[in-house]
Write a structure and sequence with these properties.
By secondary structure, the protein is an alpha/beta fold. It has a domain of 64 residues: Ubiquitin-like (UB roll) (Roll). The chain has 14 helices and 12 strands. The strands form 3 sheets. The protein has a 6-stranded mixed beta sheet with strand order 2-4-1-5-6-7, sandwiched between helices. Strands 3-9-8 form a 3-stranded mixed beta sheet, sandwiched between helices. The chain is flat. The chain starts with a strand and ends with a strand. The model has no long low-confidence stretch (mean pLDDT 93). Bound molecules: guanosine-5'-triphosphate (GTP) and magnesium ion.
């Protein structure tokens, strides 16, 4: 899973990237974007580690992509600049609240830039299709169907709307699969404020645009992190800083993506795995290793809620809460799973 850290130039994207990943942005990677990895804070995982005391612990991680800022001045080039985030699972827009501009307007403008980038891609394809359907080609009916699927999408984008609440039918999904439409990606706003003062009205107005918001003085927090350990607490108190935003931001990003966490646990390793919500037991097996999916026999499942409440696997089994599930079982958030397989 890769999250694009996006936004206009100089809003604090690289600052947030460093705060979340601990990785210093490398100026030589500025144009292409830089990838860093961050651990997902997870209390269930911490408690499972305590319970199993394994030799190895592997928490869930997400990848963050720090991207070059897009331009307010020359919007014409933005569609191309946004190309680096086509592969992102979801977007986190950093808004430079500390700069004193209009934060709500900045989110609206950014959404418009995404819409324009999508419109360019969709329109190019439509123009091509319009020409091709007039030719005596063998797949003319197919091309016509693709054209019919794209026209309502273009119409929506021309109105200036994102595609967040447009339902796509199968033909539309198929016609747009290779585009990775930007204005369809889920988007979170990270409002980078000057200090710990947060304006609830501004947050409400951004949320009304369809983007959940996490606000915080990310720049200040990074500065505090970079102080010698013994000075951090004093400085944080002086600046009125509370708990670091890092955990809050990553939790919010994770919630945005519609993934769940499942676990594999024994005395060798406690491992947290991310999986798209709605995936079945074979897909969970495949996330661990392709052999486990190929040779899948069954999944033995218990919920970590039961496990942590009752204190051991033995107690869960005694309470009759340990289940055997087949291929079609839809994995639930918090499941602890053992895959039985044969290759
Ligand atoms: N005062 C203050 N300055 C900040 C804050 N966040 C970032 N800055 C400063 O703003 C400048 C730009 O920050 P970056 O994190 O590099 O911004 P960016 O969005 O990555 O910039 P581009 O990649 O060039 O688009 C730097 O000088 C930062 O030190 C903040 O919260 N408060
Ligand atoms: Mg940057």
């Amino acid at each position: 899973m890769r999250i694009g850290i996006v936004g206009y130039q100089g809003t604090g994207k690289s600052t947030v990237f460093e705060l979340l990943t601990g990785v210093k942005p490398d100026p030589s990677k500025h144009h292409t974007g830089q990838v860093g990895v961050t651990v997902v804070p997870d209390e269930r995982f911490d408690r499972l580690v305590e319970m199993y005391a394994p030799k190895k612990e592997t928490p869930a991680k997400i990848e963050l992509l720090d991207t070059p800022g897009i331009s307010r001045g020359e919007q014409a080039g933005n569609a191309q600049r946004l190309g680096v985030i086509r592969e992102a699972t979801a977007l986190a827009q950093v808004v430079g609240g500390f700069l004193g501009g209009n934060a709500v307007g900045e989110v609206e403008d950014f959404l418009t830039d995404l819409v324009l980038a999508d419109l360019q891609v969709v329109t190019n394809r439509i123009e091509r299709l319009k020409k091709d359907v007039t030719k005596p080609v063998p797949n003319r009916a197919e091309l016509q169907q693709e054209l019919d699927a794209l026209l309502p999408i273009a119409a929506r984008l021309e109105e200036g709307s994102t595609l967040h609440d447009m339902e796509f039918d199968d033909a539309q999904e198929k016609a747009t699969r290779s585009f990775s439409l930007l204005s369809r990606k889920r988007q979170l706003v990270l409002l980078n404020t000057a200090d710990s003062t947060i304006d609830a009205d501004v947050i409400g107005r951004i949320e009304a645009l369809g983007c959940p918001v996490v606000a915080g003085p990310f720049g200040l927090e990074l500065e505090v992190n970079q102080l010698p350990e013994d000075e951090r607490a004093i400085f944080a108190e002086e600046m009125g800083l509370g708990e670091s935003s890092r955990a809050r931001v990553i939790q919010a990003i994770f919630q945005l993506t519609d993934y769940i966490t499942f676990y594999t646990c024994d005395e060798k390793e406690v491992h947290a795995w991310l999986l798209r919500r709605g995936s079945d037991a074979v897909e969970a097996a495949g996330a661990i290793h392709s052999d486990l999916a190929r040779g899948f026999i069954r999944a033995e499942v218990m919920s970590t809620a039961d496990l942590l409440r009752l204190g051991s696997e033995k107690e869960v089994k005694a309470a009759g809460l340990h289940r055997t599930e087949g291929k079609d079982y839809i994995v639930q958030d918090g499941d602890e799973i053992v895959i039985r397989f044969n290759v």
